[in-house]
Amino acid sequence: MPSSHPKCPMPENCCLQCCAMVADDLGVASALGSGADVNAVDALGRTALMCAIAGENWSDVNISYASFMTKKRLRTIQSLLECRDISLFTLNSSQSGYNNVTPLGMAAWLNMPDVVRVLLEGSADAVSVDGMDKHGATPLMYAARDGSLEVVKLLLQYGARPDFRDGNCRSTIQYALTHPQTLYLCEIALCQRRLRQNETSPQTTTTFQSHLDEPSCPLTASLPEFSPEATSKTTDTIIQLILSSNITSLQSILSFPGTSSASSHSQPHSPVLLNLPDAKGWSAIHYCAQLQFPSIQMLDTLYLSGADVSLFTAQEHWTVLHCLAVSYRPPDRTPTTTYALLKFVTHLLFNLRAPFSAKDKDDETCIHIAAENGQSIDLLKILIECDRSKSVQSIRNSRGLTAQEVARPEFLALFGIDPEEEDRPELFLSMATIRSATSNSSLASFASSGEPSSIHSRREATSSSDSRVCPDDFDIVTAAHQLIDKLRATSPSIHHPTATSHLNYVENILRETEVLRSTIIQCFRSRAKGGFKVWEDMKSDSDNVSHLLSNATAAVNTRLVEHGLPPIQPKAVREFEDSHAMAVSVTSSPPSTPLPVDARPKILSGMKMRRNDSKFSSNFMGWLKRKSSEHFKDNKKAKETLVQETTLLSSHKVTSTRPAPNPIVDKTLQISRIVVTAMRDMSVINEKLTSAKELMTSANRSIARANHIIKGVIRSRNTMLEDLRASGHKEADELSLRGTPGLLGYSNYLAQKPSIQSIDSVSSVGSTVSSFSCSGNIADNDDEEIKAIHRLVLRKIEAQHDGALDEIDKVVEWLRVIKEIVRGVKRQTY
């Protein structure tokens, strides 16, 4: 059973990390033999595999140094890959200690073709060639961005997809635009994939054979040289053919570049780079949307030839949908033109999967453009109707406005608004529209932005529900400190004068305390409700992946039985792995001379390192270990029992002569090993989900208990206040009224603090609390109720809630990894 990525408290785990870092292959083997956990991460979030790949000073590493890229380092990586307990998560997940990049992504980033080869070959297909990291980037994107040609070739040979998009809707094609040979290879792979896919599952209405699908264009062949002048002329020729709607000549030049009459003057001959932009920064796909009558046949011709429908223009950062929104101006509105437009847009969105939510440099979607600057009400209506979930319409631009809020008056009816019902406020200013103006759409300016939106932190899923109950700037920790200070100041153990002014002052404090209690508890409950919703979504995702894995397992079992091998038994995963481990042989190619790196690696634009700042993580990990210790003990016993058992098949393979290699059988066994690993990983994921649910359930109980205790404490103080009023004693204690501290010394502090007139002011007094408040720690004279409130509100509830979301965050990426791997298994077995 793979671990759920513990930190490295055990000496053997620390030894494994250190040996991997310095490429001590013998030390790694010794540590693994001593029981080190290959899936463990150190305090910086690094696994042994990633340490072996990138070393310690990965941001300054240069693989041209012979002292770094050695045979020992490659052997170290290989030995880690061959460890049977290594999980799919370890092989494919992004790691916080290395800028949230995956192992294969790091190898591509650092331009390490030998390491890329070892990872892809030595893992028996368990490393996903298209595995995305926290930034949504694939290894091919890193290699294409830096022009690492040998790495690009390797990744494409293993089936990497150039059309995958990162969190900002940028594809590998986008990153390869400045490297002609890399762009050429990616266009070849994209064209060949689309043509093959179109044969089995047609996505276009056009049947067209591009020159890029010819067998004469293998990835192993020598690449042509690209002259800037020649490629520019070819690009201009293609664009002119598009603007003149000359589909026949366009198909001719794309089928046989350099031989058609349309391109005969473009000498010297240069291969077609269909996605290369012209001097304006627009590519062929953008001009296709600028036609007076957009043509599906033209669009399909470009698509089948390798055009990227998610490509952005250089200046405006417009996609083909943005270009259509700003350019479409039909000469007249007829049912025929409207229907043709509908077919074009729906084909582009649903068949060719153009990025609907892509944003330009001003964070505006195509609906923004069509609503504010477009000339066609029909186009805007079609785009709105295609946005069935209204998720695109809800996106705000850099001004903080939605498409509805920027729409021209004549278009408002499409959004369900009557423009004559009332005067339209300028810019629809409201609390909902006042947002921070940040843009992360620009390819050239990604470095100033945060993480892309596609990488969904499950914490964000709870924030929207929080905001409905709590103000956006509500600081629950500061509010809790204030609540505790007020409870201390109104403690019955303090001498309270019976002067009316003082009693009124205490009564006011108790009213404010009640407001704080109500808001704090509401916020906690809202977060808990959002957390349970996230958990339910993740449980549904887990069930879907389990179903996908079950189907893949059935397909693999069919293949195993066909070759006379025992099928995979879900309840005997360890026995299966033991009995087949010897049958899976993996060979790695001899290392080639590493390529030098011209400059230090750069992260994909806009991708910043995210740190885990949770102050409750250590509390949570201790809780989790205690909570699930019995379960892991049972698993450990089961593991020891299963390891001791020997199947008939394994004993037969040890004592008999190995038969002649059978590539089909070997491949089937490799696939079966991946399935077994996926089944192990799913078992850990289910444990994590169970632990997360238990944490959230405990948090709910803690919230209820905190609410009960605070209510009781406030009630007792109100009773004390009534008793003081009823006593009728009027003691003139002017010293205490002028600020003399009480028994515990909190009255003077409260007199200096501003009164909470509204709950919104909580966030503005945070600095004051840190300077004056004594509630950061439990005071010696605190009664038991205040101590309990302190523990629950300031420690336990937050720790439980954050701990559950930490576990769910891990499950999110782990499920994605397994889904990618299992889908690859299905492709190989069907």
Automatic annotation (TrEMBL):
ANK repeats lie at residues 99-131, 135-167. Keywords: ANK repeat, Repeat. InterPro entries: Ankyrin_rpt, Ankyrin_rpt-contain_sf. Residues 444-454 have a biased composition (Low complexity). It holds the Pfam family Ank_2. The keyword Cell division does not apply. The keyword Iron-sulfur does not apply. Residues 444-468 are annotated as: Disordered. PROSITE patterns: ANK_REP_REGION, ANK_REPEAT. This is Ankyrin. It comes from Dendrothele bispora (strain CBS 962.96).
